[in-house]
# Entry
Amino acid sequence: MIRPQPPTDHGSMPNLRWSFSNSYNRVSASGCARQTSIRELPAATTMAGVQMQLDPYAIREMHWHKEAEWAYMLKGRARITVVDQNLCTFQDDVGVGEGWYFPSGIPHSIQGLEEGCEFLLVFDSPDFDENQTFLLTDWLIHTPKEVLSKNFNVELNAFDKLPTEELYIFKGTMPPPLSKDHIIGLGEVPEPLSHRMLKMKPMEMEFGNVRIMDSRNFPASKTIAAALVEVKPGGMRELHWHPTEDEWQYYIEGEARMTVFASGGIAQTFDYKAGDVGAVPKTMPHYIENTGKSTLRFLEMFRSNKFEDVPLAQWLAFTPHELVRAHLNVDESLLANIPPRKMPIVGKH
Ligand code: MN
Ligand code: MN
# Structure
């Protein structure tokens, strides 16, 4: 059903919606990946994302990249493995609603566990390219055999069985159970690189709940802040804006409608569904309404160490009321009834 855009829309602005289903899907024998970067969604100028699927025990090859990587598991479970610049190691198994943060330039790999997995990756740069990461095999294939033999002080033929092409995503076998005994580096990384976002106690409201995760409760995540938002049917992520950072959204489930106001009288409304990406330039106010019959769940992502927003309601409530009334001609009771704290999810019976 086509839902007309509200008559309050005016003018036009850059497109603020992209669906991962429109992205090229790179399929390999044991998984697939597709991305939404500034190339697909030019309005998203600070971050990019990748949806990846791994078959049971499939391995996303050992690699690194200049961007930091934040992840949220959508289905199944995976094992992550990291060695950092101080030769400290980190390994963990993550399930649905959990994920990780890999700092820029630090090598890592991801292996699907018994049921395989599907996850969202978010990068702190808009032009991240999943096909341009530094792959272990790609590097060694393009290094002279003499150099490899010198580096490891072995005979030339030690590298005779190197793959001839990069592996990227390839078939693996069941890894041993996770155990501290497998930490073979000089110790564990100083800050855990995995998170359990869905297990965090949410801020509960009548029409939904919010979990905010940034460097204050996930210290490793120095460049990415996230909010996991659940909105019940009829509920709405309130009118607000973000003072310092662009917002990059990923819709996990349900249906949503967002209007973004761009100043100068320009406002445009976009509809979203599961698998879509939304973009909101910093300082532009917006709301996100659950327009479906089921729970709406989405991620708000920011290239920042800290989540920040300014709500319309408390902005008005904490401004002298006669000043606000002079602008809006509203009753004092409207202002007096605004709660004295942020209520990110609102609704009306
Ligand atoms: Mn990566
Ligand atoms: Mn927002």
